[in-house]
């Protein structure tokens, strides 16, 4: 079964009793810090929230799921990648629901601890059951916070079981994070028409983008290869155009925007640079920008383009 790490953090939806242990300081037994017991109302409210979250996830209703996340929430997925902000986390869930329709949750065990009356931590193990009945499991840690009377997920960590770490790495390659680029796209302006075809290559080791730019005066193509660089822990890309130009870029992520620092060599030998950005607006719309453009040390105006999915 295809495994999407961010699904496992949903194990935080389940609760059970927690234990308090004494600790030794300088060789002596000491009493643990006293944390006020949570009010019964808080316990009941959090449980009710968790029940609603489970139901929303099992129904695959993305808006209901994300209503339980704080705007500034963060999430570390099964590969240790950090995602910050509700919008970016929402995009991950949308892809997960699309690729795993009908997936359900089942609790095996969990532990809950109130750090303060308005902050609770959940740890445990759950099983994810897909539509065919296949099961997968993982560990989780989730921090819930009560904001303006409502319990929200502030932080979530998805942790693979030790015996499954290698399998998880094989089943969920880092490049799948950019899977939203796959498809056929089109962008139009007063002077140009651009088509973009993006697909997987070499057993999903690369994403390959093919751009075709047409206008009354021009017709050229650009091919870009995108891969994950394990030495640097980031995405990298290399591009080649039909005029003999070429270049490469290093990718970073800020919120839900991917920024690519580009350096290129033009056919006449001049060096160009720019900061390119990609953002998934929704399942059928991409936003692209080229900022801080220079050729031979001379600045060029910024460029902006919206791509619409055609297939």
Automatic annotation (TrEMBL):
Entry annotated with the keyword Signal: yes
Organism: Anatilimnocola aggregata
Alphabetized UniProt keyword annotations: Signal
Residue ranges occupied by any DUF4440 domain in the UniProt entry: 47-153
Protein name as annotated: SnoaL-like domain protein
Keyword Signal appears in the UniProt entry: yes
Gene3D superfamilies: 3.10.450.50
SUPFAM superfamilies assigned to the protein according to its UniProt record, in alphabetical order: NTF2-like
Signal sequence extent: 1-24
Record-linked InterPro entries: DUF4440 (IPR027843), NTF2-like_dom_sf (IPR032710), Steroid_delta5-4_isomerase (IPR011944)
Organism superkingdom: Bacteria
NCBIfam families: SgcJ/EcaC family oxidoreductase
């Amino acid at each position: 079964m295809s495994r999407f790490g961010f699904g496992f953090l949903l194990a935080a939806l389940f609760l059970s009793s927690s234990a308090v242990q004494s600790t030794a300081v300088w060789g002596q037994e000491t009493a643990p810090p006293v944390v006020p017991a949570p009010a019964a109302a808080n316990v009941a409210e959090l449980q009710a929230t968790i029940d609603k979250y489970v139901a929303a996830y099992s129904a695959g209703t993305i808006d209901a799921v994300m209503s339980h996340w704080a705007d500034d929430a963060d999430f570390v997925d099964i590969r240790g990648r950090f995602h910050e902000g509700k919008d970016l986390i929402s995009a991950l869930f949308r892809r997960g629901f699309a690729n795993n329709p009908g997936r359900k949750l089942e609790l095996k065990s969990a532990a809950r601890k109130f750090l303060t009356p308005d902050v609770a931590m959940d740890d445990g193990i759950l099983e994810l059951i897909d539509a065919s009945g296949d099961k997968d499991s993982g560990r989780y840690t989730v921090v819930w916070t009560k904001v303006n009377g409502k319990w929200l997920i502030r932080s979530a960590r998805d942790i693979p079981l030790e015996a499954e770490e290698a399998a998880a790495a094989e089943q969920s390659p880092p490049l799948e994070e950019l899977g939203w680029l796959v498809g056929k796209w089109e962008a139009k302006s007063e002077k140009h028409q651009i088509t973009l075809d993006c697909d997987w290559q070499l057993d999903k080791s690369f994403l390959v983008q093919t751009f075709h730019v047409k206008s009354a005066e021009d017709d050229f193509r650009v091919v870009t290869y995108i891969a994950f660089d394990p030495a640097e822990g980031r995405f990298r890309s290399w591009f080649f155009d039909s005029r003999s130009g070429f270049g490469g870029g290093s990718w970073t992520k800020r919120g839900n925007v991917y920024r690519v620092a580009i350096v290129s060599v033009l056919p006449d030998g001049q060096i160009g640079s720019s900061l390119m950005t990609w953002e998934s607006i929704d399942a059928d719309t991409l936003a692209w920008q080229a900022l801080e453009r220079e050729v031979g040390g001379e600045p060029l105006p910024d460029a902006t383009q919206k791509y619409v999915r055609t297939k």
